[in-house]
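LAB NOTEBOOK - FOLDING QUEUE
OPERATOR: T.R.
BATCH SIZE: 2
PURPOSE: Compare the predicted structure-token outputs for two unrelated chains run back to back under identical settings.
PRIORITY: normal
REVIEWER: second-year student, initials M.K.

ITEM 1
FIELD SEQUENCE / FIELD STRUCTURE:
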Amino acid sequence: MGAYKSFESLNDRCRYIFRIIQENGPIAKNELANITKIKLTTLNRDLKILIDEKIIVESDIGKSTGGRKPSLYDVNHSEFYIIGIDISRIYTRIVITNLKLKILEEKLLSHEYDMDTISKIIPDNIKECCMKLKIQKSSIIGIGIGIVGGFNSDQLKDELKKEFDTIICIDNGANAAVIGEYNFGIGKGKKNIAYINCGVGIRTGIISSGVLIRTINNVEDAFGHMVVDADGELCSCGNYGCIESYVSISNITKNL
């Protein structure tokens, strides 16, 4: 059974336990029970499911508080892998991580391309990375793609699905970035976080009270096209005085 099928078969409670272990492991069972508020008998049953599927392991022995030293649970670092793809206007970055989201391999493609070209280049480069790490396709849980607006990603998704037969999730790059920072980066533990990327354009992603805020049509540049001066600079969108017309790379360099 493929790696993503192992995760797909888990019930919601097992997925929740996995997420807590992923974020906090290695972790003792008592601490895990305190965080999840799950009864010990139920927790033991779900831990057994996760261990049998090799998704988590008993990784270490914790410090004793007077009795038997407790086992510590952590995610399996070596049998499941995740692929991340960041597609911007000027480069594509491919990373392969383990379940702890530690980057094991990274490849940067900085040439010019269109989606027809990149839809063939990306799968080939992923296969090269997997061969280097000696990773089987069946060990790949899923592929996440953050992509800049303006590209039709359907062809890329079809090519990846055909080659790797795993779940593929696609969102605009700003949303993908803010989700990553919220769960594993500088925003971890915070309820509200904003991500702003000032590059060729202005790309923004916002999480408020733990919820990703999506704009109309899920565009990532709504903030950049807010008008701050109706008589200002002409913007690429056709309006005048947008934020992007002042702080994007192209507009800054134009006025130097």
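ITEM 2
FIELD SEQUENCE / FIELD STRUCTURE:
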Amino acid sequence: MRTVAQRDGRRRILLSTVSSDAHTWNLVFLQLLLEESGHEVVNLGPCVPDQLLIDSARRIRPDAVVISTVNGHGELDGARAIRKLRADAVARDIPVIIGGKLGTIGETSDAAAESLIEAGFDAVFSDTADTAVFGRLLAALPGARTAALTAAPEQPSRALPRAHRTAKGRPA
């Protein structure tokens, strides 16, 4: 299997959504945000089957995978996808972040974020999260798996959101 050649110091981000999510504007926004931050972005587009995500991660060897979803099925579809990624010998150690509208009822709960961390995500962002926190997380790559991050709308954007348990089970 051919891998993509190394790049000139820029981080390569594999951008995707979950298999049931046909929305594209969230991906366009994130691609522009990431590229303006100096990252190279490979955008897989909407309705990405789990196997395409895994195959792409194996081929591209990104510094991180970012999954964005707005249809409310991120908790279910995301958990399934991350378990498959973590089971893959090549893709298992790539940092993976999910964010957006992760459930169909209201804001992302702490329990939902925690379940996604336990499934294998390195970070979880609600749809109200501050993009500056997301940017700082990506700037810290590569590194140890990080805490899940969610932001409630009442929190000022300058404040760091609540931290959940880390993916390795230690408090953040």
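REVIEWER COMMENT (ITEM 2): The CA atoms of residues 65 and 96 lie 5 Å apart.
FOLLOW-UP: none requested
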